[in-house]
histidine kinase (Thermomonas fusca), 401 residues
Amino acid sequence: MSAALPRRPLSLRQRFTLLATLLGLLLGALAAVTLLAVAERYEYVVANEILQGQAEDYGLRLANHMPAQLPRTQRLRGYRLDDPTLPRNYAGFPPGVREDPGSEAVHVGVFDTAAGRLVFVIDLGDIEATERLLHLLVAAMLLSATMLAGWLGWWLSGVALKPVRALAEGVDALPVQPQPSRLADAVSDDDLGRLARAIDGYQTRLVDADAHEQAFLADASHELRTPLAVIQGVAEVLLDDDSAAPAQRARHARLQRGASEMHRLLEAMLAAARRRPLQFETIAAAQLLRDAAEIALAGKPGITASIDADGELHTAPREAVLLVAGLARKLAQPRTDATLQLALEPGRIVLRMTPEDPDADAATPMRADTGTGSALLDRLAQRLGWQVAFDGSAQVSIRLR
C-alpha cells in the first residue's frame, strides 16, 4: 500500500482568493435570502390588502341591505359562510389571510364583518410565476457574485502581494557571500517593512560572522604554517643524513610525505575558505598541469608525468594548481610504478593513470561518480566553476566552465 502524498499547502494568494470567494458567497447568500423574504412578504401584503378591502366593502353593503353580489371572477371569488359552493376546506379556516395548502398561488381570506363571516379567495399565479423567475435570477446573481468576488480576490491579492514578490526577488538577488543589504528602504513601514528590516539585520550579522571567520582563518594560517615549516625542515635534514639505516630513511621519507600532504591540505583549505573573489588570468595550460604534476608526484619517484596540453586556460592559477594536484595525488596514491597523463581536451582536463603493469591495476577498486571525495577539493572545484567526475579508478575528468 503506497503512502499518501503530502498535501501541498495553499499559497498566500490562493488563501486570500478563497477567503474573498467565501465572503462573496456569504454576502450574496444573505442578499438573496433578504430579497426572497421581501418578495414573499410583498405577496402577502398585496393579497391581504386586496382581500381586506373587498371584505370591508361587501360587508358594509350587505349589512345596509344595499344591492351587492359577491365577486366570482377567474382571479377573485367571494362566499358567505352558508354558501353551498364554498369549498369545505375553506369553511373551517379561522379569520385571517393564508395560502391554500394545495396551491401557493391561491390566498384565502376569512373575515368577520357586520353581515357575518365572508370568505374571499384570490389567485396570484402571475405573482408566483414572477417569484419563480426571481428565484432563478437570484441564483444566477449569487453565482455571478461569488465568481466576481473570487476574481477580485485573486486580482487584489496580486496587487497586495506585489511588494512581497519584490522583496523576495531582492532576497534572491543577494549574493552567496555575506554583504550588507538595504531591503527595508524599498518597502513600506509596516509588517512588510519589519520583515525587510529583519532580513537586513540578519545580513549584517552574517557579515560580522564572516569577518570573524576570515580573521580566524588568517590567524590560523600564520600559526599553522610556522610549525609545519619546522616539521618539513627537520624531515629534510633527516633525509640528508647518510648515516641513517635504511629502515630509518624509509620512516624519514614517510614523515616528509606526510608533512608535504599536510601542507597541501592546509593550502587547499585556506584557498577554499577565502571569501575574496578569485583572481582569474590567462595562463599556459601546459605550465599549469606541469606545476600540478610536480606537486602531486613529490615523493613518488616511480611515477612519471606526461603533459599533453596546447593552448591557454582562463582561471585562478593558484587554486587551479591545488585542485589538479589534489586529484592527481588521489590517482597516484595507491601506485608506485605508473605514468600520469595530464591532457587538455576541448572543454575539459583529463588526468589518466597508466600503470607499468596492467595486471596491477585490476585490484584497484573501480568508481564512476561525480565529486572528488574530499570536501576541500570539492569546495575548490565549486569556486572555480569546474565539475569533477571519476571515470573508473584511473581517470578523472574536469569539465571547465
Observations:
- The mean pLDDT is 82.
- The first strand starts at residue 76 and ends at 80.
